[in-house]
Amino acid sequence: MDPVIAVEGLTKRYGQRTVVDHVSLTVEKGEIAGFLGPNGSGKTTTIRMMCGLLTPDEGRGTVLGRDVIRQAREIKREVGYMTQRFSFYEDLTIEENLAFVARLYRLRPMRAHVQRTLEELGLSHRRRDLAGTLSGGWKQRLALAACVMHEPKLLLLDEPTAGVDPKARREFWDEIHRLAARGITVLVSTHYMDEAERCHRINYISRGRLLATGTVAEIIARSGLASWIVEGAPAAIDAAIERLHGAPGVEQATPFGLTLHVVGRDGEALARSVRRVAAELGLSARPAETTLEDVFIHLMGEENSRDREAA
Amino acid sequence: MRWLAWHRLWAMLVKEFVQMRRDRVTFAMMLGVPLIQLVLFGFAINNDPKKLPAALVTTSEDQFTRAIVTALENTGYYRFTHILISAEKADLLIDNGTVSFVVTIPSDFARRVMTEERPQILIEADATDPSVASGAISTLSTVSANALRRELAATAGAGAVAGGGAALEAVVHRRYNPEGVTQFNIVPGLLGVILQMTMVMMTAMALTREVERGTMENLLALPATPLEIMLGKVLPFLVVGAGQVVVVLVAARVLFGVPMAGDMRLLLAGILIFVLALIFLGYTFSTLARTQMQAMQLSFFFFLPSILLSGFAFPFRGMPGWAQAIGEALPLTHFLRLVRGVMLKGADLHTVSSQIAALIGFAVLFAALALIRFRRTLD
């Protein structure tokens, strides 16, 4: 079966600045694809190009089997796009917002569609409240419900959980998985690592370039990183950071509360350095699983040093 | 120094000035508006308009006619732009506002001067704006009588009867508004001004609000075309505009007793075209402005010259040529001629066809601009 999203070499420039630099992306049907990257890495721009809101300067491809450049309008009709900022009308009630969307998509009978969406959302009792009075989490759920009203085959969610509390985030992700189970393909951008781990596949983008793609396990394995955890007294941990910095084999030493996460590609050199420093300071050290976060921090660090060499 | 510390005030001032400079449109308005107003309106506005266009209706070419025409022109008030032989043509010119006066010198004028039969000339003044006509009329009789006396003396030679007194009678017709009621001129004009102010500003703000609140991105992602979005924004204001028109027209009739000399349907058609042009203009503004504040400033920037240079507040014909040229480029100018023509002068479609054409032109131009400026994408 053809992939739902298949784009190649998508590029967008604003003047001298290349915001998205030859991004190629494939998303299969029913998949939850994570789109990860730091702020300003080009996630939003890429998503906007895929749903026809921006015209790419270069590149080609299809979304839902339609050409991203020539059939932007058809694509718009068949995808559900949720913007990063709440972009429904705060001065309309919840019900009026849903009715507006239902009328635009010509969902008949309109009342029944709105009614059902309200019930699924669990907002029937607040239907006459202004959308502006909802909390951040509820606003996001309302926006998601409005985006799926016309039963799109593809959902593009642009940082849907930014600024939402952990419980609401979890509920939002449960909803995303329910939608995927119904056969809807989802591309969701985020910069939360725990959310990335809930995706089937992830695509990591930084400064407009796609740096890694695959399942979480694949990406971790491919990075070839080894990890150690060092534990002990806070003062000794701080001293350990100083000593590990620049030690052979050590590429990152990141504190997490009372533990220190040490990462490097050369497993043997890393083990030697960690053991030495731990012994010097009376800390305990043990090998650990490399996390996705370790990999991404590593990728960003690599890119930074490449840039420094280039400059 | 609890309530006022200089370093804190200084921090506020620096921040405010930086923000002021960042908002280019506002900054340009603050510096530009006073300057433009001063130059434009300082030079353009004239409450005692001179060199008003006039038509001369005459069949004879005798020296007395010439003397009077020259004398009238020398007053500075009259500028004869049309020399005609038919009164009908002159009627049309004054009806559609091309000329402010029609001076008619009867064909037997010279004969009556010679036979001392108290010759008459007829001055018809467009008195829709009472202030326009007053200066020109007040100088009329003495100037023309003096001119005639001089001419008589020169023709007849030294021995002729020179002290014949004011042999000339100037008959003055103040047309359309014989009593010179200012409201008759102002109230129909206000209709245009009120429509212009509300329609342009409201429409300009409506679309900008979507952009400012971030709802535009969503609207663009939903299956609505630019045309649908534009019409959806525009039509509600058309309804509001219709309400305003009814209110103003009823008030004009009931409160001010403004006559309705012409065809109501023609008036309404003209209003509709004018309102459409204004809404499209507002829509164009909304595609230029990035915030509601800027949209309001753009509307206001357009509003000022419209009020001052359109002939609403000051006589159009009294302005210098360049100011009249600017005035011609404003929809309100043409609308004022149309509404005053139809309401006060009873003008028919034929008479106001050029005004209607101009308004249609504006509507089409603004609609095209709005559609071109509106982007379907966020590029």
Automatic annotation (TrEMBL), chain A:
Keywords: ATP-binding, Nucleotide-binding. SMART domains: AAA. Coiled coil: none annotated. GO terms for molecular function: ATP binding; ATP hydrolysis activity. It comes from Meinhardsimonia xiamenensis. It comes from the Bacteria. CDD domains: ABC_DR_subfamily_A. This is ABC-2 type transport system ATP-binding protein. Residues 5-232 form the ABC transporter domain. InterPro entries: AAA+_ATPase (IPR003593), ABC_transporter-like_ATP-bd (IPR003439), ABC_transporter-like_CS (IPR017871), P-loop_NTPase (IPR027417). PROSITE patterns: ABC_TRANSPORTER_1, ABC_TRANSPORTER_2.
UniProtKB/TrEMBL annotation, chain B:
It holds the Pfam family ABC2_membrane_3. GO terms for cellular component: plasma membrane. Keywords: Cell membrane, Membrane, Transmembrane, Transmembrane helix, Transport. It is a multi-pass membrane protein. GO terms for molecular function: ABC-type transporter activity. It is found in: Cell membrane. Residues 137-377 form the ABC transmembrane type-2 domain. The chain crosses the membrane at residues 25-45, 186-207, 234-254, 266-286, 298-316, 352-372. Belongs to the ABC-2 integral membrane protein family. This is ABC-2 type transport system permease protein. The lineage of its organism: Bacteria, Pseudomonadati, Pseudomonadota, Alphaproteobacteria, Rhodobacterales.
